[in-house]
Design goal:
mainly alpha; 2 helices
Amino acid sequence: MRRLLILTAAATLAIASAATTSTSARTTHHHYRDAHASTVVPDGAIPADTLNAHDAYMKNLHDSGYNPHNDFDAHGVIKIN
């Protein structure tokens, strides 16, 4: 009787682990940034979101004529207006 109980428990564990393994093998996890990874971009096209927020801000400052080197004097001290 004891041997039958042990064999039944072992068979149950084997079946449960096989079912879990086959289920987890089919599960794939996707990152939110991969949602449009398969989108085809024509040659020569520039994606709209190539700059992050900081880079876009610095580009806009540069385009408006801001030069960060003008913030300091010859000794490296911050200029006061």
